[in-house]
Design brief:
By secondary structure, the chain is mainly α. It is built from 1 helix and no strands.
């Protein structure tokens, strides 16, 4: 494994102990969590827009 590619943390669970991870693993995990948070936000917005559209159709 080359020096530039940090190892991926294996099966991290939210709230799990972080003390055993290296700095590069923690940095990778942080970036992965931020990307996942962005993905979740997009999904929430999509579902909210779908719900709003459905509500407007069935509103009398």
């Amino acid at each position: 494994m080359d020096e530039e590619t940090p190892p991926k943390p294996r099966n991290h669970v939210l709230g799990a102990d972080l003390s055993r991870l290296s700095v590069s693993e923690l940095e990778y995990l942080r970036e992965a969590c931020l990307a996942e948070a962005d993905r979740i936000a997009v999904e929430i917005d999509t579902k909210g827009a779908t719900r709003a559209a459905a509500d407007s159709v069935f509103k009398f």
